Predict the 3D structure of the following.
Amino acid sequence: MRAAIALAIPTLAAALPYNPLRSLFKREDSWGGAVSLGPTTSTIKHAVTTILPGTPPSSQAGELFLWPGMSNGTGDLVQTTLEQWSSGNSWCGASSDQWCVRASLFGSFGQKDGNASAVSGDQKVKIEYVLEDDNDTWTQLVTDADTGEQLSTFSYKSGPYMTGYGTGTECDDSCTPTVSDQYYYNTTLTLASADTAFGDTIATSGTASYKGLASSEGGAVWTIDEIYIPAGKASKRGLL
Ligand SMILES: *[C@@H]1O[C@H](CO)[C@@H](O)[C@H](O)[C@H]1NC(C)=O
Ligand SMILES: *[C@@H]1O[C@H](CO)[C@@H](O)[C@H](O)[C@H]1NC(C)=O
Ligand SMILES: *[C@@H]1O[C@H](CO)[C@@H](O)[C@H](O)[C@H]1NC(C)=O
Ligand SMILES: *[C@@H]1O[C@H](CO)[C@@H](O)[C@H](O)[C@H]1NC(C)=O
């Protein structure tokens, strides 16, 4: 891969390969496998994936987060997240065997969120990040991939300089790790201009793997047919 993006958000910068991390890293956090791409020599202007999250653990000792994140390492982190909390997920109307999903943004302001919805483990969730025509506003659109029902949305002027994208399985405060495999299907990243070497930046960590990396439009559009993150296996250095 190319040089890792330097992360402004806390201390993992030196240790980790590129990953658009959530801002609140703590010593007791651990990580499942991940797949990431970046930085591009261009910028990302559109990103879409469909996650099949699998059923969460029957109870949660900490906080468990699944997300595809996008950032440039110093600016805002666009990060729709599937969440499970130790206090349960009734805050979004979920039952104990469901996730909550919401569009979230992390930055110098802290965290901003869209409204959350309940998601079942076998429900495919389409997560789309769109740079609007003003070339400044990023809209997160979260929908049920099969029915098109909107689950969450959030828009914010985070700027046109997004350069990296990656998955995260984040296990905070001694969480109970995932008990189901996670899949991300048909991930498509559209760049503002061609970057024929963007595919060379792909990195996997831990037990994660991918299938079907391809580009089109001269290197401006990049697709990954499937990203596979096996259940469990979170570790303090899971991304290394
Ligand atoms: C959340 O839902 C409330 C009530 O429907 C709505 O007024 C608000 O705009 C929504 N917030 C976002 C960020 O979508
Ligand atoms: C968006 O902003 C970037 C960075 O300033 C610039 O390179 C690009 O040409 C702009 N795109 C459009 C469509 O205005
Ligand atoms: C990241 O994006 C922010 C906001 O658009 C911008 O101010 C910053 O210069 C960008 N950083 C890099 C390394 O491109
Ligand atoms: C992924 O794309 C393939 C080919 O277009 C399609 O058959 C499949 O249904 C898509 N899967 C998802 C989960 O969107």
Summary: Confidence is low (pLDDT under 50) at residues 1-26. The radius of gyration is 16 Å. Residues 127 and 142 are 5 Å apart (CA to CA). DSSP finds no helices and 18 strands in the chain.
